Structures are given as C-alpha cells and as structure tokens.
Amino acid sequence: MDATRTIVETVGKLRQRRTAPLVLELDLTEGLSEGPPADPVTALLSMRKARLAEVLSGLRRARKDPRVTALIVKIGGNPLGLGMVQELRTAVVKLRAAGKRTVAFAETFGEFGAGTVPYYLASAFERVYLQPSGDVGLTGVALEQRFLRDALAKAGVQYQIGQRHEYKTAANTYTQNHMTDAHRESAGRIAESVTEQIVAGVAEGRGLDPERVRELIDQGPFIGSEAVEAGLVDGLKYRDEVYAETVDDGAHLLYVSRYAKSALSGRLPHPGAATVALVHGNGMIRLGRSGRSPLGGGGAIGSDTICAALRSARRDEKVKAIVFRVDSPGGSYVASDAIWREVVLARRAGKPVIVSMGDVAASGGYFVSMAADVIVAQPGTLTGSIGVFGGKPVVGELLGKLGVVTESVAEGANAGMFSPSTTFSDDQWERVNAWLDRIYDDFVGKVAQGRDLTKERAHELARGRVWTGADARAAGLADELGGLEDALALARRRAGLPGDAPVRTYPRMHPLERLRPPESSEDKSAALARVRLEAWGPLARMAGQLGLPAYGPLVLPGYWTIR
C-alpha cells in the first residue's frame, strides 16, 4: 500500500507540475555558448553555459505557451558580444509583446567599470532591478587600440607585413605607432553606429527621448539611487525580493534551456520529416578539423569539419534548406575558400543557404558567407573587412642581443624566405605582394559575384574596411537585419516548409562516434572535432597569435570587443 501511495503521489505531482504556471529563468553569469561544442575540451568548459539556439527556441515557444507567465534573467558580469545581446533583446521584446512579464536583474551593471552593453540588454525588459549596492556603468562606447611598433623596435623586433588595403588595420598594432586616417575613420564610424543602436534601444525600452539617453550616457556611470531617479532602473532590490515579486504562489521555476528541451514544449520531429540544417562555424578559420588547442586559445573553425557538415546537409534528401551560423574574425584564406566552395555547391544543388552572422563575421568570416542566398546580420555585427594581410616578424636583432646565433644551410634562393631571422629580400617582398594581390583580387571578385555588384563597387566597399551590420546592409554587403531565429524562419519559407519545421544540427552523429576513426574522407565522422595532442602545432599557433616566431605568414586578430 505504501508503494502504491507513493506512486500515486508522484504521478499527481507530475500532473500538477505539467499544469502549473511556469516562470522561465535565464542566468547569464557564465555567458552563453554560440553553438554546440566542437571537441571534448570545449564541451567540458561550456557545461555551465546555455546555448544561444536553445534559449531563442525556448523563448519563441514560450510566446504561445499559456503556462508561461514570466521570464527572469540575471545579467552577470561575463560580457556578451553585441550581436548576441541584440539576438536576446529581440526575443525579449517579442515575449513582452505576447503579454508575458519580463524582468531583468543584475547585481551590478559594471562594478567600477563599463556596463553599457549589459545595460542595453536589460533595457529591453519590462522591469529592470538592481541590487542596492550595484551601479549602472552606462558610459558609452570606446574603442581603444595599442600600438607596439616602437616598443618592439627597442627590443630588436621588426614586422614586415603587407596589407590590402588602407582599412585592413589588424596588423597596425605591430606596424604603426598611431592610428592612420583610414583606421580612425573606420573605428569612429563603428563607435558612432553602435552608439546609435544603443541609444535607440534604451530610449524605446525605457520610454525616454533619444536625446535624453545621450545626455545620460555623458553623465554616467550612476550609483543605484541615481539610476532609479533617471528612469534607467525600476527599483533597488535583492534577488529574493525580485523573485518574491515575480513568481506567483504555485508557479514552477524552469531554466529556458531545460524548457526548450522539454517534451512539454512540443513533440519530437518524425525521423523522416523535411528539415532545415543548422551548421555552426565559430572561431578563427583554419585548415583541418574544428576544435581548440589543448593548451587553450579558444575554438576554431576547421575547413574539414565545416565542409563535411555542409556536404552532409547537401546530400541529405530530408534537408530542404541550410542555415550557416557564422561567428568568426577570419583566418586562413585557403580554408575559407574551401568552405566557400561548399556553400556554392549547396546552392547549385537547389538548397537555399541562409547565413546568420553572430558578433563578428569579418575577413574570412565574410568570405565563407558571401555566396549565400541571403545574409542576415545583427545591426551590431562587425562584418566586411574584405582584404588580406601577410608577412612575418623579424627577430634577428633581438636574438643577437640575447646572444643567440642563427646559422642555416639552404638549397633554393627562397628556401629561408619565411625565417624570422632575416628580412625579405626585394625579390621575396615582390612575391609576398603578388600573393596579397592575388588573394585580394579573388576575394573582391567573389564578393562582386555573390552580392551582384560590379567589381569596382565591390572594391569600393572592400579595401579591408570593417562595417557594422547596419552599415553593411545599407551598402549591400548584407540583406537583412536580424538573428538566428529570423534566418531559420527565412530558410523555412524559402524551402516551402511550415513555420514549425524541425531544425537539425549537422554533422549528425552519435557522441560515441567521436571515438571511431573515419572510414574515408566522405565518412560523416570525418567532420568531428578531435583534440589534437601534437606538441608543436598548438605551440606554433599560440606563438603566432602572441606575435612570436612561429611558422609561415602571421595571422593577427584585430577586432574590438564592445562592452
């Protein structure tokens, strides 16, 4: 009898839980993951992070779920990129429009530091609460660049780098001691465009005049009471007070990502149903497989992995359209070109390809995107940077100061061309520039082809310049402003699928497949990311990122994080 009573009580609680009001939670303390982990190390490091796609899917479902009454989001100090923030803001605004309560809570929006972008996210919510000891670091947008040329020269290090063209400023950190006119122009317009977006969003969310928001930005940062008086927050409350006010008696708390996965949110798609493929490309672009160095340094887009995923989706008869999510500052030209080719082949196969840009889709990130049917970017996405640079650091003088003697034996006039011990000869520098000219010409030509522009107009928009998504759309480098959910909806429409057609992440495989060596280059498991344990490769790549002698042409990241 006791066992029967326990079963009956358990079933009763489950039924009650299924019908109880739901208050969804989202904790952004650890940030969000852009896509699924590409390797075991990344999987471990991102265990505590929700995935953006799951959060967006959950909030979309919540709009039509009568059980969901409210959303509470804790905005933490771990910075989110501007593109991701705009994805979340759009989802929150739509949830508000559906009649759900939306509440943002933060212990602080910048503890003695900038908090403009976190507050920009909070301003989309119906109610914004701040811990009494917190502050609102609404201070505007600043892009700061440090120049190391003179410091490196004192140490005996010289950089020989060619670039195409004047706006391709990623290497300026090492080759200049100040902002060039083109550099300042580009950075100034980015700051201006982002500020326009933030001012408009805060003004709309808080019911303030845009000019008043600009005045407040110039007056920030604010202590809590000042923020309340200015209308930036609705009250000073601790977490328990926020939850007591928002969560009604009998309501059930549930994380958004759990809600998205729950069987209560909808039925699993039929295995044979027509579907949209979602392919994620996050990080620097390189040849080989996606993953990360076992010594750290973040994730990378491997051309083998992404090409195999696109091929798999192209050949799958159930896949009717492809959404390619790109969040990358660029990288290898050859790897980018391989991925570009697979996008072209997917379109030739009659499958619409929609690119959804994240925080950054610049240089190689734009290269892999430009052949898509439609490019969807957030207003704050950093994109474009259609150009190239390459060269090497020369550390011969530094090695001499340290007492390091370098000798070499070579066969071939240019065998030691990429040695960091000596500068390029005139003939070698001519070859470097021929290489840069070829890449730039190919890049611009493919932009013109993919975006239906003349080559002259493509060059005018290129020259290495970085644009915000809003400016890129105005220039014709992007088609629509929006996020991942918009791209998925567009893909469904282009393929003639219903609005709730399922989405599958590619490549599709069981986690245990990670342990199995591929059978051939066409084996789907070849797209899996594996942890590389070779010692030299990761060390060399890390050295290159730090500006130390590594191998071949140097790839230098050169994009700002807007906070």
UniProtKB/TrEMBL annotation:
Catalytic-site annotation from UniProt: 168, 363
InterPro entries: ClpP/crotonase-like_dom_sf, Pept_S49_pIV, Pept_S49_SppA, Peptidase_S49, S49_SppA_67K_type_N, S49_SppA_C
GO molecular function: serine-type peptidase activity
Sequence ranges assigned to domain Peptidase S49 in this UniProt record: 97-246, 347-496
Keywords: Hydrolase, Membrane, Protease, Serine protease
Location(s) in or outside the cell: Membrane
GO cellular component, one term: membrane
Top-level taxonomic group: Bacteria
GO process annotations (BP): signal peptide processing
CDD domains: S49_SppA_67K_type (cd07018), S49_Sppa_N_C (cd07023)
NCBIfam families named in the record: SppA_dom
Family under the similarity heading: Belongs to the peptidase S49 family.
PANTHER family in alphabetical order: PEPTIDASE S49 DOMAIN-CONTAINING PROTEIN, PROTEASE 4
Name of the protein in question: Signal peptide peptidase SppA
Biological source species: Microbispora catharanthi
